[in-house]
């Protein structure tokens, strides 16, 4: 199942490139211009300009004139015929390997066949390839199942094709049950094995192509869609007719010939999570961007790690070019915490009520993301109703592994069960470090590695210019200007605050005059408060603060001589990064994610008291050691920025969107 990867892995799919076939096929184009042939000039010219085109045969009805004669060149010709089948057979008999049949006026990009032709060339099992278009029945874009006179506003066949092909590492065709659209690429192999196109001249040309693709599929040939190419079908040339596949008489005639039609066609066109539905969603996302709803129901009055991550992530995603909108669901939109007011002033961000996780006023989105632990039951039916995919971040597995943080076994068991249940149902997991990913693997949590992504947090949300405020308790104690060591973190036992106290005591016992400040919220279970109380009972130079405001936290980090961070369990470990941003060194043991991101240069490798105390003395007294400690952390600033987080997250979202929902 594991290890998980940091980027989506692609397997070889039908139509992949065969290195043994280096040459490119020559395509012949058949333009069936049986209506107003004088309005097909743009089609004729764009077909002649196609890469790797051998011939272009412009076929008109025998009763029509040939208005485009003056535009004929050495690769094109004009002929007359009443049989689409005979015209196609003539091209095949002349040796064509592939035939692009065009039955309505279209405009093509020069490289329109770049992938489709290659797929047919490398895989003889492919019978037909269709293309996205503004008017292509169930392959219509951007309005699914709705043909439209033009493509999306501000876009044409060139810009959309370029957009669809951006960031493609391994483009592959999308299977469809029957070909559709004004232009269809057909393989010689399918024609040779399955027989010619229907000879019945009374049939609509789209019916002829659809019937052939169904007949070819019975022989084992596959019909595919090229989602990397947009074919423009203008309605202002010869008008518009609805797709023949929606015509009751045509549907019945196709059913009489092929009993398996229209079952799969109707399923694919109507189900949002079908293979086609997923492909069309991804095409739309490339054009418009991702719509993301962030579960920020934990944005309460206290700002701790979860709140920092949720806020910073939301703001960073809103800046990403591939994100259309970020909806942030908070407990009370009318009373945002002061630290979260930036949400109101950020373009592309809107704030709604979390409404007990029901998100009552939420629009339909692509992704709902819970950026914190899956420890609370999700209303899955509601979330599935308003989103296409659901993502959960695993920050750590500390609570999953440590029962001391719960009142009793029943509460711990409930937490563990809920944790596993949410992971089993989600579409994707973000782990904030490779260390967390390894823990997920060790615990055999129920999710496949293809759905697990390493998306590290950003660390650049603080700076030396951040607003500060001195905690009132320090003023009251007369310690406003006294040097101090800071221990920052909650009272959870794994933070080992009592060990930090003993390190400070050892420094003081050697005659060093320095105070100790401990700041962090109290937790109900799994604390070491008793050990802390015993350790500091005889010391007046110890200040214990409950959780502090953001301004106070900034002041403490800016003014501290040293931050002690003796934690032994973290999913990421934000404190050293926050300290460095405030130009303060931080002492911690090199383990897990801290070692992963910061290495182990000049850091203790164990929790030995003497080793920690010696390292603390060095960071207090040696200016070079202090600068090196800070520089080592700041060197990660670009790699671990919130912009980098958003880039990695968006890449992961897109990979998750390419897979089916669970």
UniProtKB/TrEMBL annotation:
Residues 308-460 form the Glycosyltransferase subfamily 4-like N-terminal domain. SUPFAM superfamilies: UDP-Glycosyltransferase/glycogen phosphorylase. The lineage of its organism: Bacteria, Pseudomonadati, Pseudomonadota, Alphaproteobacteria, Hyphomicrobiales. Residues 7-21 have a biased composition (Basic and acidic residues). The keyword Transferase applies. This is Glycosyltransferase family 1 protein. It comes from the Bacteria. InterPro entries: Glyco_trans_4-like_N. Residues 1-23 are annotated as: Disordered. One of its GO terms (biological process) is lipopolysaccharide biosynthetic process. PANTHER family: GLYCOSYLTRANSFERASE WBBK-RELATED. It comes from Methylobacterium nonmethylotrophicum. Keywords: Transferase. GO terms for molecular function: glycosyltransferase activity.
